[in-house]
Amino acid sequence: MITWLQDRYGTADVVHLIDRTVPHPGAGEVLIQMGAVGLNSADVRIMRGEPLLVRLAFGLRRPKTPVPGRDVAGTIIEEGEGVELFAVGDRVVGELSTAGGLAEYVIASTDRLVPVPDEVDDLTAAALPMAGGTAWQALDAAGVTAGSRVLVLGAGGGVGTYAVRLAVQRGAEVHALCSARAIEAVSGLGAASVADRAAGLDGLPPNSFDAVLDLGGRAPLAALQRLVREGGTVVGISVGENRVGPVGRMLASALRSIGSRRRIRPLTATAKPEITGQLLALAASGDLVPVIDRIYPLDDAGAALTRIDGGGVVGKVLVRAARADGD
Ligand SMILES: NC(=O)c1ccc[n+]([C@@H]2O[C@H](COP(=O)([O-])OP(=O)(O)OC[C@H]3O[C@@H](n4cnc5c(N)ncnc54)[C@H](OP(=O)(O)O)[C@@H]3O)[C@@H](O)[C@H]2O)c1
Questions:
Q1: Closest-CA residue to 142 (of 134, 150, 131, 154)
Q2: Neighbours of 140 (CB within 10 A)
């Protein structure tokens, strides 16, 4: 089978295609014939090993799991010992704990998997887990419900487009700021307003939002805090893209929240199959349609990683099983 592999940290050039034998699943695992993989900015951070904190979790010198790709959808073709909840032929999706998705066949632990409804194709399913799950957990962290007034800053990427759509689904009044290239796509998600984030935050009314979701991690915390009303919450989904780095940003968020009625909560989202299940149900009913930036064949997945690394994606970058020649 063909698989992408990286044996050191770096740009997409370090990820290369190899041929290897198809693995067999161990206890509690299944072998999936990959149908589609959803890539996330997390895949690129792990590929690069940046920020350096990433290497503490994923391997000091090289990635412990050398095959990138965490969000995988496909069909089970072999079961390991003790697998009861799934059977050969089932279509499943999940956010894998140790990546490994960019390959024709993928081993997955069943506790990460969710069945895919017939109405949902593999590409749609693979677009959901990490980005949709992060947006969902951010909305929960901010307590977004019907009637909440929500600002999504940096709404055009994978997590951002879901944050807008899922907040609208909850009945919130959503205001989105995104890069100019994403305005058209974000405008289709049901937000009350969509504007170019290049205009900055100064023109926005202070004390007016119940929740601000920050996808950029660059805006001054004081400016974000100023936008929420008393009792409102800023959720820092991205914390790393600034001078002080992730730890500094988290520390500053904690300090600014002490004694404040406008809390800043840095988010650490985790894989939650039950949320993936809810996202699939929304996709099956047509209420959640992922925004797709581009779809690459498996043998061109290096270009997909480069695409994310270059910035400026609108929605999700996906990889499909077929090779470029259609096989
Ligand atoms: N906390 C967690 O657990 C968690 C989980 C997943 C992802 N994340 C973080 O969330 C961010 C988005 O992830 P993703 O996978 O959706 O990445 P992505 O698809 O590559 O999207 C990048 C996002 O960053 C935004 N952005 C870029 N420059 C910005 C700026 N100067 N100001 C405001 N927004 C800016 C973009 O908004 P525009 O459309 O406006 O350009 C876009 O939404 C990443 O920083 C990622 O590390 C955090």
A1: 150
A2: 15
Separation of 160 CA from ligand 1 center, angstroms?
7
Q: How confident is the model at residue 65 (pLDDT cuts 50, 70, 90)?
A: confident
Other C-beta atoms closer than 10 Å to the C-beta of 161 total 33
Q: 315 CB less than 6 Å from ligand 1?
A: no
130-266 CATH fold = Rossmann fold (3.40.50)
Q: What's the gap in Å between 221 CA and the centre of ligand 1?
A: 16
Mutate which of 159, 166, 213, 313 for ligand 1 pocket (most atoms within 8 A of beta carbon): 159
Report whether residue 15 contacts ligand 1, using a CB cutoff of 6 Å: no
Is it the case that residue 224 has pLDDT exceeding 70? yes
DSSP for 77-105, written as a single string = EEE-TT--S--TT-EEEEE-SS---SBSE
Task: Give yes or no on whether 2-127+291-320 and 130-266 have one common fold.
Answer: no
Residue 227 CA to ligand 1 centre (angstroms): 20
**Ligand 1 midpoint to CA 27 (Å):** 36
How do the domains of the chain map onto residue ranges? 2-127+291-320, 130-266
The confidence score (pLDDT) of residue 327 equals 53
pLDDT digits (tens, 9 = 90+) for 262-286: 999 999 999 999 999 999 999 999 9
Residue 67 DSSP symbol = S
Domain spanning 2-127+291-320: which superfamily? Medium-chain alcohol dehydrogenases, catalytic domain (3.90.180.10)
